[in-house]
Amino acid sequence: MKRLFVILSVTLLAGWLGAQPVVLTLDSCRSMALNSTLKSRMDRENVLAAKYAREAVTARFFPQVSLNGAYAWNSRHLYALPQTMDMWFGSMGLDGVTFNNPYIQLAEPYMPRTTQYLDRITADTYADIYNRFDIDITHVLVGQAGIVQPVWVGGRIVFAHKMARSLERIAQLNARKNRTDVTVETEEAYWRVISVQEKERLAERYLTLIKQLEEDVVAAREEGMVTNADVLQVKMALCDAESSLTQAQNGLKLSKMALCQIVGLPLETNIVPCDSAQLDSIALTGVTVDMQQIKSHREELQLLGELSNVARSGVGLAAAGLQPNIVASANYVITNPSMTDGFNKRFEGFFSAGVAVNIPIAHASDILAVRAAKHKAKAVELQLAEAQQKIELQATQSAQKVNEAALRLAQAKTALAHSEEILRYAQDSYAEGLLTATDLMKAQTAWQKAYSDKIDAAIALRMAEITYRKHTGQLIVDN
To answer: ω before 63 within 30° of 0 (cis)?
Structure first.
């Protein structure tokens, strides 16, 4: 990381000053591209989000502890007894005793003092009892501390944890796939810059040859050895060479700007790649396809595999609605007024523990949900099988293109060697007067085309190698 920071600091400063070219290797371009894109930061955030979502599901295996409190104000008290209570002999209450029994009513006129005494003593006693059952609920306070532990909830937590773990893996695979795509884009842009740079050098060499030929032809015309038509043909070739050089220079500028955009440098930075010597090296020959390696490294297959795991977990989640649910709980409740010894204006509490069981009987919606989840899981499995076939075909085609590109580069090198030998022979023959300027131009043009074909074959091989490494899972980018 320290080395990368130094590279970034130096390159950014050089690009900003614009005083010197910035020399970059392929590895430094990859590192800069992977650390400069907003997509990489988004991927990191998505991976962290999936990680914490998985940890949140894991926490459901453990007990949940909670504290609750409540307060209520009421405008009136509660009374457990009525003001008048009906009895077998009549009624009694705060106003005394009333006899409704006919036998007592017949005897009541003969004992007035007894009746008066009963009225008084009953009223006083009942009033005292009535007031004792006065429940003051003006201010009610309730506190509760509880713990809840799922014993069995039909496997919901287990399958939810498996699903969250697969989703975390999917986020990681998406991040790795995006990093792989950035790496491929960076390598292609890097080698494209080298290719156009080689085309510019070729155009400069070809222009030098045509200019030298023009001087020779003009001098020969003054001596009467060639005609004006020969001079005009050389001048036309010179114009074409200058046009080709301009096109190569413009193409190189645009290619460098594209690479700067990928690696996060200012577009005007003059990037100089230092791996141009490796452009025409044949790194891969006789490549083959290993499906075991592809299955273990291709992000697309791993993503579909994790999606299949998610679908199977979805079947388990849907089936959990058809299974019993058992939840255990323990609580401590404290109230004011207290209800453990009458109703008193003080805080008192008590413990409670219990088990709740829910057994589903008729849940047609859950049965249909299970069937739907099973079909969805089957569809994902079929999609995975189809993807494996397509990726195997894709990897095989990439391997063939690498072999074809390597053969084409070898042939282009041989053709270039022949054209260089022909050019030397033509130059010697022209110097001795055995060939005309037109013949020499043909040899120069053939050499220029062979050199250009060699550059095209070299860049085609590099692009084919990048594609092959991507399609076979060999382009592994560490986080």
So the answer is: no
Residue found under tokens 């413009």: 250
CB 202 within 8 A of CB 448: yes
Evaluated on CA atoms 127, 128, 134, 136, the torsion sign reads: positive
Classify the C-alpha dihedral 269-275-276-282 as positive or negative: negative
Q: What is the pTM of this model?
A: 0.73
Omega cis (within 30) before 150: no
Strands (E), 216-267: none
Band (pLDDT 50/70/90 cuts) for residue 310 is very high
DSSP strands (E only) in 41-166: 64-73, 78-79, 84-86, 90-93, 96-99, 134-135, 139-152
DSSP-derived 3-state class of residue 227: coil
Tell me what percent of the residues of the chain surpass a pLDDT of 90. 32
Degrees, nearest 5: CA angle 359-361-362: 145
Give residue-wise pLDDT tens across range 417-445: 999 999 999 988 888 878 888 888 889 89
Which residues, 6+ apart, have CB-to-CB distance to 13 below 8 Å?
A: none
Q: Report the C-alpha gap between 178 and 33 in whole angstroms.
A: 12
Q: What is the 3-state secondary structure (H, E, C) of 50-79?
A: HHHHHHHHHHHHCCEEEEEEEEEECCCCEE
> What residues have CB less than 8 Å from 38, skipping those under 6 apart?
none
Structure tokens at 448: 């220029």
The contacts of residue 109 (CB under 8 Å, 6+ apart) are none
Lowest mean pLDDT among 57-61, 114-118, 311-315, 406-410: 114-118
Cα angle value 340/343/344 (rounded, 5°): 95
DSSP letter string over 271-288?
A: EEES-GGGTT-----S--
The DSSP element (H or E) to which 326 belongs, if any, is strand 325-336
Residue 469 to residue 446: CA distance in whole angstroms: 34
What span, in angstroms and rounded, lies between the C-alpha atoms of 331 and 240? 92
308 backbone φψ class: left, alpha, beta (φ>0; ψ -120 to 50)? alpha
- From residue 328, alpha-carbon distances to 31, 60, 149, 339, 351 in Å are 53, 14, 5, 25, 14
Greatest alpha-carbon span in the chain:
173
Query: Which tokens go with 308?
Result: 């299949």
Identify whether the C-beta of residue 465 lies closer than 8 Å to the C-beta of residue 399: no
Residue with tokens 């999917």: 170
Query: In this prediction, what percent of the chain has a pLDDT beyond 70?
Result: 83
Distance of CA 88 to the CA centre of its chain: 81
